[in-house]
Amino acid sequence: MSTLCGKDILRSDLLSDGELELILSTASRFERALTAGDRLTNMQGQVLATLFFEPSTRTRLSFETAMLRLGGQVITMADPKTSSSAKGESLVDSMRTVEGYADVIVIRHPRKGSAQEAADAVAVPVINAGDGTGQHPTQALLDVYTMQKEKGALEGLTVTLAGDLKNGRTVHLLVYLLARSGVRLLFVSPPGLEMPAAITADLKKLGAEISEGGDLAAAMRRSDVLYVTRIQRERFEDPAAYERLSGSYVVDRAMIQQAKPGISIMHPLPRVDEITAEVDDYEGAAYFRQAANGVPVRMALLALVTGRN
Amino acid sequence: MSTLCGKDILRSDLLSDGELELILSTASRFERALTAGDRLTNMQGQVLATLFFEPSTRTRLSFETAMLRLGGQVITMADPKTSSSAKGESLVDSMRTVEGYADVIVIRHPRKGSAQEAADAVAVPVINAGDGTGQHPTQALLDVYTMQKEKGALEGLTVTLAGDLKNGRTVHLLVYLLARSGVRLLFVSPPGLEMPAAITADLKKLGAEISEGGDLAAAMRRSDVLYVTRIQRERFEDPAAYERLSGSYVVDRAMIQQAKPGISIMHPLPRVDEITAEVDDYEGAAYFRQAANGVPVRMALLALVTGRN
Amino acid sequence: MSTLCGKDILRSDLLSDGELELILSTASRFERALTAGDRLTNMQGQVLATLFFEPSTRTRLSFETAMLRLGGQVITMADPKTSSSAKGESLVDSMRTVEGYADVIVIRHPRKGSAQEAADAVAVPVINAGDGTGQHPTQALLDVYTMQKEKGALEGLTVTLAGDLKNGRTVHLLVYLLARSGVRLLFVSPPGLEMPAAITADLKKLGAEISEGGDLAAAMRRSDVLYVTRIQRERFEDPAAYERLSGSYVVDRAMIQQAKPGISIMHPLPRVDEITAEVDDYEGAAYFRQAANGVPVRMALLALVTGRN
After folding, report:
1. Fewer beta carbons below 10 Å: N end or C end of chain C?
2. Which one of 3.40.50.1000, 3.40.50.1370, 3.30.830.10, 3.40.190.290 gives the CATH number of domain C17-135+294-305?
3. Is the pTM above the cut of 0.80?
4. Does residue A84 belong to the interface with chain C, where contact is any CB pair within 8 Å?
5. Whether ipTM exceeds 0.90
6. At B133, is the pLDDT very low, low, confident or very high (cuts 50, 70, 90)?
């Protein structure tokens, strides 16, 4: 039987099928308890430290809510400017200090590889809440959880990922989780922002069915799920090129009318202009439910790594 | 019977007499429980999100204390610089995300009307902790609660409001609550900072007894309560004019000696120079008690809107 | 019998022997409970306010953990830029406001004497978490607690204090606590950063055995404990002088091999270059245990001043 007790959650790509299944089923169980209004006490007497060396209110509040909903408590460093690292302290020293306070640590840090370094420094479980261009495993997990919940099962689904697939940390990891669950993948992105060839080759080696290119409307006609990512203005040297390209990746009600009936629309948020506000009322608009799913998924992770599931 | 269950608290002027009475009596009950050292569990298992898009430590800590004293838990965004709105996210999207975490949301935002917009976006109750030049209903409510507690009853009291009555958001709303409770109002302010004529006209239409002008000492001789507000230096183009005017609105012990015996001195705080420190020892100096009253009043609101009173 | 109920903890030098003993024994009892996994409820229903007018994440998180481990709750002002003092409010007014929210207050403030001023303003117990060049009593107490725990007893120990002894607030107070416990003291510091003569004279008057000067290696050969402090670059006008001097105060494994066997290495953290990372694996490297000891020591103080030990 799979267990995650005492383990760190640093990468989504190293989770075994059994571990992935354990996380999703535990999240589902916690979600049912929340819906039923049960008061959980799994983490009673435990302290979570959320260390955000790079601000991210959304992710931090989601983790903190997860801990509180399990009956635990939270200490938080939300602003790196007030931290000892501003005085020149190493990440290892910061972690070894906080290890003296907390039973489990969630860390977000702008440097790739920092989560692994942080986890190696301490004996308590560490959960990576994003390490720069590295990983953000809890986002990938809540994305998978959301697709499963919206669609019943992953196997056999067709999922379009649209937008900036070159720089999207989350998307790079999500596709592996989807590919191994038997999802057909369509990649739609502006020229220059395609999914890295190495990842596509990798996925094909794993037996995944992948299509690339084409326009968004065509992809939506074939897809059960559309996963939209932000196209960041700062990636373009030419503002006009940004305006032209980003405009053709805006999802509105008209596009949904032409899409496969019942298509689910997902987005990791925050969105800026990629999905128009009128889409919010569409029943397949899943992005706010997706954000809310972060709570039971993170509850599952906190409880599993501390052996309190 | 009045109930506030499931309602938002966005404005103080739309509360019915029954709702106002319910809030004040619930606050009074909670205050007695706190004084008795009872441990309350009304909000056990519930999470409050305090979203401060504009910092206000005093108001935030008061709400958080209220939630904790009721046995609930808190997640907080104290600094707008770390929020997703800094990445261009709309207020509506921020609210719909946090709705996935919290059972009740307190919001402070620099833009007038933002609290209404925030409340419209979500199904959970929203409490306005100040929306720019808009409203700050919990301040008005704790002011009324304080006067009632200090004086026994509002009806028949004479209350002087002194200072900048033109720009004082709280004062503009407080006067309506007082007028409809049968309080006689005296307005004393420097030239150019008078109570807006529209409000005075409005109050008179409601049957309120109002006097304007005159000096502060004269008003204090007739008043049961003096409510002092800050005169902000930045409202004056000429610094000398500020110095001259603000000086005549400083309350000291000598002025209290000439005032109606037992006069209560109130101030929404923070004060700068409007009341001298020597006044603090006067038994009618109510401003710190007034600040403390924010806790039971906010406890009442949190419990009432979630149906846990 | 000593009691600290209702008292403020502002200075370490005014604690009686009985009070010191009470703090250390209470900390020890709480540490055993934590190790045994007991869930403590001493502070249930109580609220701690941590007011940091100067950021210090390490100290703040340590106090907050202490409160949470005792079953209490926390409200926090971590960033002075968001406080009312930024609007010109006096420290006294801020304290009298927060007194309306919290049962005990921890304050850190950049101005010497501010903790006393803060404590004088309110009826609830106040704990000084550092007042500029003034005191930082909980650091001195956790240092003493650590030495006692690492070495069994203080009496008869030889302790070297190395580094900048001129500007080290904590060290100035720690030495009094050590001297009166029968510890022999060696002071080793770069020219110009010696322990102030007034303190040395004072300690000798108290009967303490003190040596000064000499090199670090020689001191380490005679010492049971080495307490290292940071030499701050900004104390030197000439960068080359800093490099030359600080280099001779770096503790590495080679130096430990030449030291008295079993020597304990302490440091208040954060460290920058004073102790090399290779020392961390040395079993006498006590600095991270020292940081962790802050939790039971602060638990003891919180429980004692509120009469909930």
Report:
1. N
2. 3.40.50.1370
3. yes
4. yes
5. yes
6. confident
